[in-house]
Structures are given as C-alpha cells and as structure tokens.
Amino acid sequence: MLEAVVGQAAPDVPVEEATEAVDQYVLAVVAFVVVYLVGRYVVTPAVVRVVRRRNPNNETLTAATGRYFVAFVAIVAFVTAVSVAGYGPSLTRSAIVVAGASVALGIAGQDAIGNLVSGVFLVADRDFNVGDHIEWDEYTGVVVAIRYRTTQLRTIEGHEVTIPNSELSANTVVRPYNRRRVAFTERLPFGYVVDVDRAAAVLERAALGAEGVRERPRPTANVDEFDEDSVWVEVTYWVGDPREANVPKVQGEVADRLKRACDEWDLPVSPPADHRVVDPVDVTHGDTESRSRWSGDT
C-alpha cells in the first residue's frame, strides 16, 4: 500500500530531459558571455581603431562608434543565447507579435527614436564635432558633448543648453567661424556727408586696438546699407576661441572704442530721425503768427 502511494505521489521524472534543458541554459549563458566579451574587447576596439584612423580629428565619431557598437554586440549576444537555448523557432513563430510590439514602440517613442537616429547622423558628420562654435535659431554656443538623444552646448554667456538631436538635424546650423576664431559685427549709421573711406580706416584701427581682437584676419569696415538719411557701415572683427576668450567683454570694449574714435575724429553717428507732427500746423499770411509743434529728434 505504501509503495503504491509513494509511486503515485512521486512519478518518474525524465532526468535526461531535465539534464538536457540545464545543459542548454548553461550553453546559452556561455554563448552570451563569449560573444559579448569577444565583441566588446576584440571586435569593438578594432572597429574604433579603423574609425579613428579614417577620422583623426573627429573624436566624437570615435567615441560614439564605440558606444553604439557595444550596444550592437549586446543585442547579437542576446539573440545568439536565445538561439542556443532552443527558443529561436519560438521567436520566428512570434514574428507577428514582435512586429506589432515594434509598431507600438515606434509610435510611443518616435521622438526618442528620431533623436537617436539624428544623433547617429550627427556623429557621422565630419564637420560637426565637439568644440565647434555653431548658431541655430536664436542660440549660439560651443558643442560640449554629443550623446545618444541630445547635444549639449555652452553659450558665450556660460549657460549650458541641452538640445534634442532631431532639432539640430531639422534646422539650419551655421558655423560662423573655424574652430579657432569667431566673427562679430557692429553697424553704425553716418550722414551722407561723411568721408566713407576715412571713416572705415578709423573704425578698423579702433576695433583692432581692442584687447582680444585678432590681428589676422584684420578687422574690416565696409558700407552695408543705404537708407533715407544714413550710410550704414558694418565693422567686422574676429575674436579667438570663445571657450577661452571673454567674448562679451571684447564686444563691449570694441563698441566703446568705436564710439570714442567717432568722437575723436569728428565722425558724427547719425541715428535715424523720428519726426512726428502732434498738433496741426496753422499757416496764415500777413501779421498773423505761424504756429507749429513737433515731437521727436530733429
């Protein structure tokens, strides 16, 4: 009787199948570890060396390639482990489920995926690198880091700005200078009686004398615009690396020197006049006095 009860409570266990399952799991773990370690410490450094050799001045691309390739290696190792464990056919049969989940994930995370894809293109752009000074929309600053989803910049005022990569990819990005200098301009209006050549020479010397303004290329002053009352002269000058130079201080000193040079050399700046009649003008003949009232600069 006891033997019958024990036999019913503990039926025969397929030991061979259990052992085979354990062996598959162990092999799956081993496969994952081997594939990941080989990819991480053998293949990835080789790929990074090739990228660095072809792009010696693009450290952003080199670092990003290493990060992205490690993620790719992890995915390959996981798929390999699943296949070794015997779940490969199950994944194949679940293709419809996987496709549906991919669509749902794509809709839910389209912004994040868009930023990630944009980041891949940004790091692959040899003309876009850490240290570049760029302008876009209403911002201007130096690229500090390019990450998976965002790019970090530092403005000339010292503010840290984080921009989604999709925004940089979708908008026009201007590089106003090479990586060692940046150009700035000042516009001044003069009356038509001014000697433009003389004014340009004075302004160029004044800008060049400001601390922080580069001698090469030299500052330039050229006629930029004609309006009804004034000739606008644009002064262009160059400042060194904005990461090292105090750009706002240089701009303030240049503006001050331009103003003092205009006063010293009798170059009257001619702001646009704003004439408005606020009361009617009565004009009579004979002994009656004419009356007028004006408001604004004359």
Automatic annotation (TrEMBL):
Q: Which residues form the Mechanosensitive ion channel MscS C-terminal domain?
A: 192-264
The molecular function GO annotations come to:
mechanosensitive monoatomic ion channel activity
Which ranges does the record mark as transmembrane?
25-48, 68-88
Compartment(s) of residence: Cell membrane
Which residue intervals define the domain Mechanosensitive ion channel MscS in the entry? 111-173
- What is a single cellular component term in the Gene Ontology annotation? plasma membrane
InterPro entries per the UniProt record, alphabetical? LSM_dom_sf, MS_channel_C, MscS_archaea/bacteria_type, MscS_beta-dom_sf, MscS_channel_2nd, MscS_channel_C_sf
* Entry similarity comment: Belongs to the MscS (TC 1.A.23) family.
Protein name as catalogued = Mechanosensitive ion channel family protein
Supply the source organism for this entry. Answer: Halopelagius longus
